[in-house]
User: What shape does this take?
Amino acid sequence: MFEKEEIEKIKKLVENFFKLIDPEITIMSLNFRQETIFLEVNSKEPKHLIGERGEILSDVQHLLKAMIKKKFKKDFYLDFDVNNYKKRKVEFLRQLARELADEVALTKKEKILPPMPAYERRIIHLELAARKDVTTESIGKEPERKVVIKPYP
Assistant: This one.
């Protein structure tokens, strides 16, 4: 997808971007696989890059993607993580989905999760997709869209 020369330029752009934000941010990894750029950084003050419920992290990811896309005019996905926040969040959501699904299967009463962004709802849906005893659906309108876990009819 990206040529070797472009990859080097992207690395430099990312390094400069984070130096401007906070010189103590460390780029842990910057990998390119197919049409995805995986970027992981560590920060002594991760809350400044993550924000409440990951909102700043999402904004920084969007900004970085826009900068790279403008320069290289290619379509790609950017997966940006700070201090493994997203990895921990994904595991938490998977565990939550399993626990709530077990409860729904036992009680036969649906559970409505709090509003969450599309990528978090997708994690819940995918985690429970193979289960035969429950089903999931998203309800409501953004930004208040929620996942409902229901007993399978």
